[in-house]
């Protein structure tokens, strides 16, 4: 009972480093919410599974950053718990995207290649900004490592969307977009599993200390 209470309370009053973490996480949270809205809207209009996947990934990132804000200044156990929640969230969204890929494959929607390319490039540029904000703090806790993994996954997904957009334009087929949707599903599920592994390691280290 007493241990749970300690896990839920800050270890110490917020210092300058904690304030810096909060400021960084608040910035990337707002950025990813804007990305999810913008990319998701284009994905719907352009009938692109890849872009819808990228939007879901950005939304998952925003969720990670939101729960990571809670973890700032708290115990290692609390941070591991937040990272575990982030991993579960990412896996759940990956499964949701898989369902969407299957639905679009059955419906036979035709994506717009140029919209995929331009949107993915813009999204990737914004992700670079997020990585620059997170880089100095990625070793300051498992919750921030989780945030770094999420944003790195976004870069891989956007690179794939650009390539599939080119393929859609050259072939006139929706197959490349559906394939990149499946690739994004794999990236998302792998990232979620990696975060869960890091959370388990952090929890074991905290228990052994």
From TrEMBL:
Q: Entry's InterPro entries?
A: Cation_efflux_TM, Cation_efflux_TMD_sf
What highest taxon heads this organism's lineage?
A: Bacteria
Alphabetic keyword roster: Membrane, Transmembrane, Transmembrane helix
Supply the Gene3D superfamilies for this chain: Cation efflux protein transmembrane domain (1.20.1510.10)
Principal place of residence: membrane
- List where in the cell it is found: Membrane
- Pfam families per UniProt: Cation_efflux (PF01545)
Membrane-crossing residue ranges in chain numbering: 25-46, 52-73, 85-106, 112-134, 155-172, 178-196
Show which residues constitute the signal peptide.
none
Q: GO: which molecular function terms?
A: monoatomic cation transmembrane transporter activity
Query: How does this chain sit within the bilayer?
Result: Multi-pass membrane protein
Instruction: Kindly list the GO CC terms recorded for this protein.
Output: membrane
Q: Where is the Cation efflux protein transmembrane domain?
A: 28-197
Q: Does the keyword Transmembrane apply?
A: yes
UniProt keyword Membrane, yes or no: yes
Q: What is the official name of this protein in its record? A: Cation transporter
């Amino acid at each position: 009972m007493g241990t749970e209470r300690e896990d839920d309370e800050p270890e110490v009053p917020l210092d300058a480093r904690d304030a810096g973490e909060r400021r960084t996480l608040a910035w990337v949270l707002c950025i990813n919410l804007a990305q999810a809205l913008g990319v998701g809207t284009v994905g719907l209009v352009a009938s692109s599974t890849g872009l819808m996947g990228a939007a879901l990934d950005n939304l998952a990132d925003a969720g990670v950053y939101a729960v990571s804000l809670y973890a700032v200044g708290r115990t290692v156990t609390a941070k591991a718990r937040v990272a575990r929640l982030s991993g579960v969230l990412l896996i759940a969204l990956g499964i949701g995207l898989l369902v969407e890929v299957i639905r679009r494959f059955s419906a036979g929607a035709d994506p717009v290649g140029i919209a995929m390319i331009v949107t993915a490039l813009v999204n990737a540029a914004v992700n670079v900004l997020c990585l620059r904000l997170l880089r100095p703090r990625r070793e300051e806790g498992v919750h921030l490592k989780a945030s770094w993994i999420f944003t790195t996954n976004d870069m891989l997904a956007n690179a794939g969307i650009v390539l599939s957009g080119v393929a859609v334009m050259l072939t006139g087929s929706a197959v490349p977009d559906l394939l990149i949707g499946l690739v994004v599903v794999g990236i998302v599920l792998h990232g979620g599993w990696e975060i869960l592994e890091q959370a388990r390691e952090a929890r074991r280290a905290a228990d052994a200390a």
